[in-house]
Amino acid sequence: MTDDDQNDNRIRVLLADDEKLITGALAALLGLTGDLTVVAEASTGPEAVAMARALHPDVAVLDLQMPGLDGLAVAETLHRELPGCRTMIITSHGRPGYLKRALEIGVRGFLPKTVSARDLADIIRTVHAGQRYISSELAADAISAGDSPLTPREADMLALAADGSSIAEIAERAGLTAGTVRNHMSSAVSKLRAENRHAAARMAREHGWI
What we know:
This protein is an alpha/beta fold. It has two domains: 3-143, 3-Layer(aba) Sandwich (Rossmann fold); 152-206, Arc Repressor Mutant, subunit A (Orthogonal Bundle), CATH 1.10.10.10. Helices cover 54% and strands 14% of the residues. It has a six-stranded parallel sheet with strand order 2-1-3-4-5-6, sandwiched between helices. Helix 4 (71-81) links the parallel strand 3 (59-63) and strand 4. Helix 8 packs across helix 10 and helix 10 packs across helix 11. The termini are far apart.
């Protein structure tokens, strides 16, 4: 078997993280494994999607929070457009609601950024083989936190409020009346026992519910 044949059998990995030092270091370490090769390093969500479309990696390792699109939005896009690409989320924010959302959209790996390069390589192999890996620590946090008390519509309204938008602006973006938006907001604020919609949006984001 030639060196080119061996390289063709490697698991092709895309790394996406806005901290370039992290992606560079991981790429170098994963490249030493012999069976993994990093084919792309992205620093934003849109860049990760574009690189995946062009290179068709086997596994995409995605930071949860990136400029442009977060890791979950990127994963959802890749599942729709590149079903052969397995996705993994790495995060320094152990917000339990994100785990549930990740599983719902088909993410195969969910782990903290504290994972070692050696363990990351093993997890990439596991995910590539069609299995799932969920950090026990993050899973325990998700179980203890419970499910979101928000309805899907309430969560949508809080997500639109997260940037400080007014009721009128949210209504226009959502295609709803101001009164309907106000009712959803009031219900969400009450459920979360928040001072106002902006505090409720922050609380929901901290729990990974939006």
